[in-house]
Design goal:
This protein is α/β, with parallel strands linked by helices and 448 residues long. Strands 2-3-1-4-5-6 form a six-stranded mixed sheet. The protein starts with 28 loop residues before the first helix and ends with a helix. The N terminus is likely disordered. Bound molecules: guanosine-5'-diphosphate.
Length: 448
């Protein structure tokens, strides 16, 4: 490659790198960015899912919490953000899974954080648990869809838009020592391409140290063998790669939560007090709470936000746009403009519509034919019935006419006989009046 006029080599991508002979000022860009971000404020959205409690564990919690889900989600979130979030109590008797989102505004120094905590209510509490995770998937997709719709608007306001996409999913696993439930694996598998999953063993004070390590190993190997992708703290940034690599080796974090404070020495610390001793929430050899807080909030919150946008949302956006018919390249790998993609989709839609119209027409014709056949058959039946009735009527009429004729003959005969009888009677009366008188006299004298 030939050297350029000023003796500097062109860069691989066609840009030349030049040196400045004095201060210009664009080195303040990162500060400008920081100032702008501080002014705008940040948002962070956490989804809490509690894994299925094994039957052995459930009654204990049930008694303790009077039916609350009770895996320690609220206590942990309160402990993480050093405040009390007013999360309403929920019961185990939910007919279906619901997601309850609550947004809070927090401020630390001059940084404002709009924090949304989404709690799953009733997850795994139903008798039929098969579709328990579907509402969670739908919720995550709905937040992506809302963002996509805002992006696609002509007049969009992404700057002031309240981004509700989930940045981190804390998956609470009870310290049972047993294998993960099928529903837990199914849920994590169906979520791992949509959200950054951080598995957490909650209430880690109820499992011994050796059992805990075995449990952690078991969980990790189950996740690997089921190809569940959990969030890995990034190791490509050299400022955090070392700590993140170490922390990836501690996953899943086993945490203890508490909102109670106990006096230790002359300090008040967050802890859980038992008859046999005190478990300090923020003591590294008691549990991984500090590791979780460091990783989730102090070191990788921005990476979680970025991964959500650049990886999970990107995947959703791509599949949705492809579904809508948009393509970057055409059949011969030629770039396709938005206009072309729109026209192609319009044409495809038009053809589809025509096809549907034709299908409907065919269906209509078919239905008409069927109706016509039915009507013809009915008409035929009526016609046959009518002819039959007419025939019967004809026969009946003939019979009646015959009967009428016979009756008329009888009447004529009767009239004739009657006339003859009357004639005979008249003749007899005229010819024998004396004998009739004699008969009368004999009757009157009592002689019979
Ligand atoms: P949620 O229903 O999942 O939000 O659970 P909560 O945070 O309301 O906790 C339920 C119960 O578990 C409460 O009595 C808490 O005090 C208790 N709890 C919370 N975190 C821990 C923990 O780390 N260890 C123990 N042993 N109990 C805990």
């Amino acid at each position: 490659m030939a050297a350029s006029r000023d003796g500097q080599q062109p860069q691989n991508d066609g840009y030349r790198s030049l040196s400045l002979s004095g201060h210009v000022g664009f080195d303040s860009l990162p500060d400008q960015l920081v100032n702008k971000s501080i002014k705008q404020g940040f948002c962070f959205n956490i989804l809490c899912i509690a894994g299925i409690l094994c039957a052995k564990f459930l009654p204990q919690l049930f008694c303790l919490t009077l039916g609350e889900t009770g895996t320690g989600k609220s206590t942990l979130i309160d402990s993480l953000f050093n405040t009390r979030f007013d999360d309403p109590v929920s019961t185990h008797f939910q007919p279906n899974v619901r997601l309850r989102a609550q947004t809070y505004e927090l401020q630390e120094s001059n940084v404002r954080l709009k924090l949304t905590i989404v709690n799953t209510v009733g997850f795994g509490d139903q008798i039929n648990k098969e579709d328990s995770y579907q509402p969670i998937v739908d919720y995550i997709d709905a937040q992506f869809e809302a963002y996509l719709q805002e992006e696609l608007k002509i007049k969009r306001s992404l700057f002031s838009y309240h981004d509700t996409r989930i940045h981190a999913c804390l998956y609470f696993i009870s310290p049972t020592g047993h294998s993960l439930k099928t529903l837990d694996l199914l849920t994590m598998k169906s979520l791992d391409s949509k959200v950054n999953i951080i598995p957490i063993i909650s209430k880690a004070d109820s499992i011994s140290k050796t059992e805990l390590q075995k449990f952690k190993n078991k969980l990790m190997s189950e996740l690997v063998s089921n190809d569940v992708q959990i969030y890995q703290f990034p190791t490509d940034d050299e400022t955090v790669s070392q700590i993140n690599t170490v922390m990836n080796g501690h996953l899943p974090f086993a945490v203890v939560g508490s909102t109670e404070k106990v006096k230790i020495g002359n300090k008040m610390v967050k802890a859980r007090q038992y008859p046999w001793g005190i478990v300090e929430v923020e003591k590294e050899n008691h549990c991984d709470f500090v590791k979780l807080r460091e990783m989730l909030i102090c070191t990788n919150m921005e990476d979680l936000r970025e991964q959500t946008h650049a990886r999970h949302y990107e995947l959703y956006r791509r599949s949705r746009l492809e579904e809508m018919g948009f393509r970057d390249t055409g059949p011969e790998n030629k770039p396709v403009s938005l206009q072309e993609a729109y026209e192609a989709k319009r044409h495809e839609f038009y053809l589809e519509l025509q096809g549907k119209e034709e299908e409907m027409r065919q269906h209509f014709v078919q239905r008409m034919k069927e109706k016509e056949t039915i009507l013809k058959e009915a008409e035929q039946q009526i016609q046959t019935k009518l002819e039959h009735l007419m025939l019967m009527h004809q026969e009946e009429k003939l019979k009646l006419e015959k009967k009428k004729k016979a009756l008329e003959d009888d009447i004529a005969m009767f009239n004739k006989k009657k006339a003859n009888a009357e004639l005979l009677q008249t003749q007899a009366f005229v010819s024998t009046p004396v004998s009739l008188k004699r008969d009368k006299d004999r009757k009157n004298s009592g002689f019979v």
